[in-house]
Each structure stands twice: as structure tokens, then as C-alpha cells.
Amino acid sequence: MDVFAMQEICPYEVAAFGYSNFCGLFTKQEWINFDYGISRRLYREFFSENPTDRAQGIGYVQELLARLKNEYLFVSHTSVDSTLDNNPTTFPLGQPFYLDMTHDSTISTVLLALGLDYFKGPPTGLPYNIPHAPNPPKHFRVSDIAPFGARLYTEVLTCSTPNPKVNKGHRRAIYSNLNIRNGWTFIRMLLNEKPPPLHTLGCPYRSDGLCSLKDFLATQEESTAKAQYATACFGNYVVNEPITSQAANGNLDDCPKKCHNWRKLMLELLFN
Predict the structure, then answer these.
(1) Residues near 79 by Cβ (< 8 Å), separated by ≥ 6?
(2) Is the CATH number of domain 2-225 3.40.50.1240?
(3) What DSSP string runs through 104-163?
(4) CB of 223 within 8 A of CB of 115?
(5) DSSP character string of 190-207
(6) pLDDT of the chain along its 272 residues, tens only?
């Protein structure tokens, strides 16, 4: 653990001071292994291998959908505080810009709650009993998903045609015409400047990541039910056998066969 801690110091010192003497102590392969180890840990604790993670990310998804629909949230059965989200003072609608601040682990749970299967690993989870990390890495990589200063944008765009031409240039070229008032509304997400493939939600495939707002909202109709928030928080799903594969959907569909008491485990992680 001391060696692992030295590797962890390197990026923190680089972010704070611009350089760290710890960085040069390790080989390229050791850094690849470190990157994969961090990804493996986040995947298990805050993505598909944790059956409570859809529940952890669903609150943000509900607020995102409320803003997209221009609706207040009067009732909540999740982490959303409806006493705030039914009030125009604390939850204003119709704004041109919203900003939410969070932790890197929350970003991964939001991606899972949205149903972005692109980031999921194989049914058996990310491999761990291997001599070296897979290289190149697969889709779930912490340094891509949640680096320092990670950002997840959700953009709402109005286009003059229902099938806009894919713009292969700089993404700002999309905004070349800001005077469109009546047209077709699209949504696009950008995860650290890259559009995650919304076609894995059920939207038609586009290389620029655009999806019609109507289609996107349709893909989220079952997102709250799939999160299984009440069961994740209050259910008793204790078994003695070890987990041998991931909770495929980041919820409790596979419980009680494969799940430990994840509620107890997450409380231990949070407060120990």
C-alpha cells in the first residue's frame, strides 16, 4: 500500500505544484497498471459491480430530466429533496445555464443511471486476476471519465432540420447560427469534451452524439424504476457467497443470489 500511495501522490502533486519527484520512480507499465487499478476500484465501488449505483446516480438524472421538461419535482422517492425542487427560488426553470458541482464518483453513477452501457465491462466484470493491466484500456477508464476537473455537459440545441448534417470540424462550429427560434430540438452530452455514444441508450446513431430531445426523454422513462432506490437503501439482501460477477445493471436485479449487504458495505466505506 505504501508503493500505491506513492503513485497516488504523483498526480496530486502535479496538479498542485506542476511536478512531483514520485512520478519518475515508476515504469510506464507500472503507470498503466496503476491507471487500471484505479479504474477497477471505481468500477467496483461506483459503477456496474455495485448494485446500488444506479440508485446513487438517479437523483441527478431526475433533476436533469425535470429541467429538460421544464417541470418541478413535487414528489421524490430518491435522494432528490422535493421541498427544494418544487420551489422556483431554489430550483429555477427555464434558465440558459445550470451548474452542478459534485465528486468524480458521482459522475460514474450518473452515467450508469442514464443507462450508458458503452462504459460497461463484460458480464464477469473487469478482470482482476491478471499479471498486467489490459493495454489499450477498454471503455471504462477513470482518467477519461473522471480526471481532475472532470466535466459532464448536457447541451440543448435547436436545429433548422430534423436530420442535421454531421459537423466534423471543431465542435463550436455547431453554434454558427444562433438565431434559430423554431426548429427541431436536440440534446448532446459531452464528457470531458467527448460525446458519449447516446445510441447505446436507444437514440439513432450519430458520430457527433446528437439525439433528438424527444428520443432522449423516451430512453429515460424507466430510469427511476431501474434504479430501485428504495430497495437499495432499505432492502435486506445479505448472502454469504462471494460475488463472482458484476451486478449487470448496477442495480439489484441479481440479488439476493450474488449480492452482499451493499448497504452495510457502502456505509462502512463512507464512515470508516
Answers:
(1) 56, 58, 59, 229
(2) yes
(3) HHHHHHHHHHHT-GGG---TT-S--SSSS--SS--S--HHHHS-TT--EEEEEEEESSSS
(4) yes
(5) EETTB---GGGTTSPP-T
(6) 788 889 999 999 998 999 999 999 999 999 999 998 888 888 888 888 788 889 999 999 999 999 999 999 999 899 999 999 999 999 999 999 999 998 888 999 999 999 998 888 877 777 778 888 876 667 888 889 998 889 999 999 888 888 888 866 545 444 445 455 678 899 999 999 999 999 999 999 998 889 999 999 999 999 999 998 988 888 776 544 444 444 556 666 656 545 554 445 444 444 44
The angle that helices 2-17 and 28-46 make with each other, rounded to 10 degrees, is 90
Residues 6+ apart with CB under 8 A from 140: 39, 43, 47, 119, 120, 121, 126
- DSSP 8-state class, residue 8: H
Annotated domain spans of the chain:
2-225
How many Å separate Cα 191 from the centre of its chain? 9
Is the bond into 197 cis (omega within 30 degrees of 0)?
Answer: no
3-state secondary structure 14-70: HHHHCCCCCHHHCCHHHHHHHHHHHHHHHHHHHCCCCCCHHHHHHHHHHHHHHHHHC
Cα torsion 37, 241, 110, 194 to 10°: value is 40
Contacts of 237 (CB under 8 A, 6+ apart): 51, 231, 252, 255, 256, 259, 261, 262
On the CB side of 148, CA atoms within 13 Å amount to 8
Using CA atoms, how far apart are residues 266 and 126, in angstroms rounded to an integer?
A: 20
What dihedral angle (degrees, nearest 10) is formed by the CA atoms of 41, 43, 44, 48? 180
CA distance 124 to 243: 10
